[in-house]
């Protein structure tokens, strides 16, 4: 298989219950083996579970895909080797064994998973400033203008106020939902 020069998302199979340990091991290996230009993000998709015990509401994080970890990487022989030989990784999903490279996740699958984790699906090259006026290009407020009240460049999210029916409404937006005026 030809080596890909683009960042794509792959799924790792791990021992169930070791997902966070694999994430920590892999992040450590990326640094120690100088693979920062090939292996970018490692996530263990989780969601909040609410349960009542003894009349108290408890919130705990449940893994959405037990036994699996997602990794964003450029697939090369070296990056494949580093990930594949990380302690706790049993293999890549979509690999046919015998050293074959796996198939990446489809973009719509990645977008759905990242969105469920509150992460931006695309990294905008735009930067935004609090107080700046923006145009909303996607979502419920598409076509409207807003003024930025808060900005989180790491998560690629911002808050904006929008004038709607002569009232100010606050909206939480992803960078990929807005454009500069």
TrEMBL record:
State the InterPro entries in the record.
KOW, NGN, NGN-like_dom, NGN_dom_sf, NusG-like, Rib_uL2_dom2, Transcrpt_antiterm_NusG, Translation_prot_SH3-like_sf
Where the record annotates domain KOW, the positions are 127-154
Listed Pfam families: NusG
UniProt keyword terms in alphabetical order: Transcription, Transcription antitermination, Transcription regulation, Transcription termination
Q: Gene Ontology cellular component?
A: cytosol
Its Gene Ontology biological processes? Answer: DNA-templated transcription elongation; DNA-templated transcription termination; regulation of DNA-templated transcription elongation; transcription antitermination
Transcription regulation among keywords = yes
Q: What does this protein do?
A: Participates in transcription elongation, termination and antitermination.
Q: Which family does it belong to?
A: Belongs to the NusG family.
The name this protein goes by in its record: Transcription termination/antitermination protein NusG
Give the species.
Answer: Lacticaseibacillus camelliae DSM 22697 = JCM 13995
Report which gene this protein is encoded by.
nusG
